[in-house]
Amino acid sequence: MPIYDRHDRQELDKLVEEYTTTSNINRRQFLQRAMAAGLSVSAASALLAACGGGSTGTGTPTTASSVDVLNVWSGNELTNFQLINTAFKKKTGIQINVESTRDLPTVLNTRVKANNPPDVTGSPGLSQFHTLISQGKVVRLDTFFDMTQVRKDYSQDWINLASQNGGLYAVLPKANSKGTIWYNPKAFQAIGGTIPQTWNDLIALSDKIANSGKYPWSMGVSSGAASGWPAADWIDQIYMSLNGPTMVDQWIAHKIPWTHSSVKQAFQYFGQIVNGKRYIQGAPTSILATGFTDASYLPYDSPPKAYLYYLGDFTVGFITAQFTSLQAGTDYNFIPFPTLNPQYAGAITGGADFLFAMKDNTAVREYMKYLSTAEAQTIWIKQGGASSVNRSVDLSVYPNDVQRNAAKQLSQATSFRSSPDDQMPTAMETAFWKATLAYIQNPGQLDSILSGLESTASSVYTS
Amino acid sequence: MATISQEGVSLAVPPRRRRMEGISWSAWIWVAPALLLIGVFYIWPMIGTIVTSLENVDTLGNVTGFAGLKWYKTIFTDPTNLIILRNNLLWLVVGTALTVGLGLIIAVLVDRVKIERVIKSTLFIPMALSFVAAGVIWRFMYIYRPAGENQIGLLNAFLGLFRIPPQAWFVNEAVNNFALIAIYVWMWTGFSMVILSAALKGIPDEIIEAAKMDGANRFTMFWRVMIPMIAPTITVVTITMVINILKIFDVVYVNTGGAFNTSVIAQAFYDQLFTNQNGGFGSAWAVVLTLVILPVLIINIRRIRAEEGLR
After folding, report:
1. Which fold has domain A180-349+420-462?
2. Which of B64, B145, B259 sits opposite A463 (nearest CB)?
3. Residue A288's closest chain B neighbor by CA?
4. What is the ipTM of this complex?
């Protein structure tokens, strides 16, 4: 076994680094340089193949007969996802092995650092997705996707969300609107409620219910280590409705400081719901101590313990799992988030599930192509609890009107942004979540909470 | 018989003090594997951690510059971080006192009771559970519903009997740290109890009887005979608990994730390293944790040496 001298070894390390993180060199140059550093032809090609998970995605991929997928789905979501995988196996014979974890960022991070990434993974969050792309750890898809079909299937907003520097890196198997306020239509009619169109309508409705001695709202933000995210979703949507997508982008990029009046205003609007003491039973303690799923049940108890509950369209899943006999449309439905600023009526936030590939082989390519098709996404949509952003998915396959309307809200949104907190660096996102908890506890401290966030931001965004 | 065997024992003990100059190169070969392993798995990573704690590291893991003592300054000046240090201290004092104290009291109380085995087994069972399982069980104990609702959590239902309003145990900052410590105490008291109980059984009957003949009452017996006799065991159990508690993580992570001012050093370390991907800050927390545990380890080693010297 030949022993390389130190210099050659460094040369190779540099080459691998350059090849996997940038796209400055092609395969030919790579082989030449590797051989110049003392490798044989076969050793150089083996090295190139080993780096094949890098960013170019050109050339002949290695063959494989199974794909390992890491994601966060469990329960119902996992069952539906497995339906897609079964259909894929029937079609291609490729076996999909799913590993599910609730702590995806940590698991993924550890595996990437150990140079043992999964073939395909769910996204640990947008900021980490972008980080991984710039590290050259994500397989670029547009080099082997039929991009004409992709452009036909997905609107530019969605393609942008899954892209970086002009390359497509992820497929979006499903998406969620977060412009939905859930209610129980029967109970709502019984108290003579009317669908609010504007924020003032919403507050008037809440006051009306509160004055009749009932609790208009239900809210729960507890979610273990991620506690606070449902409140951040609230503030995200309020900010979007008030200020529109351009300012949302600036807020995410920290071009607008946390101490800016627009951020304060969004917190205060949220505060109108939280601090209306007669709005939520046991507030503020109950908000902090109640899980977001438990809180979603209250409007459907008999008699109802609350009338309105805000959270994304995935709330359908909680409601139908808890109350199996409820009918969509008559027993549960959603109110589109009211207009706060007429200029941005119909502007909604939401979330999309990402799947991206970290190893390049024939099986992974087949699988990624399949996941982005309307055919695959229809399988999940039929089961309910998700919307597809693939325009070729027929609206008639949604199991009921509620799901169809949620999907329409997404596809017909005047503007759409993925939840701002999800797009911020993770340290900022968790600080934002913690800040919402502090605000719910002590609304009077808003100014110091926001300046705390600003000082977090100044260290997070510079480093 | 007895005299002969005692002589035999004393003969078997090798002469204790040997001169250092006798150590030959062959001795180094024998200790080399151990030194190598310690070097690779302890010393080297530790030095690496200390170096990283003085650096700025971006989320990709690349060093972006020298930070000096910036992270340490943040730990010891930032109010939220000071609360984390305070929480660890609270855990240390209350958690250790309760696990060792309760363990000792229970060990003495169940000694020579008929159902001793049943009680000991029952108290020991929580040890066999994972912290996650314990977290789920205690969630049911602590569940909170707004006043006026049916309280399905055991503790709040109990408070309801006395018409005391329900408490959100993990949210209310006056009690949440103690609520978490209670879970740890529930899990580890059994461990202290079993070990202390074994030590109590090891006290020779002659001594107990002699004390009784001398007219010692139960309290004198406990304080003047039992405690001194099992003092080395108490020290061992205490040190085990102290180390355990200083690096406490699971209980906090599972139940509150460090929210509402319940974070501890290990949780902060996890948050910075894994959630925020801030290697420098995370390493600084790890170094602080090591520095805090170090004196305990030194005390422990001194104690072991002293015990060996006694033989």
Report:
1. D-Maltodextrin-Binding Protein; domain 2 (3.40.190)
2. B64
3. B171
4. 0.76
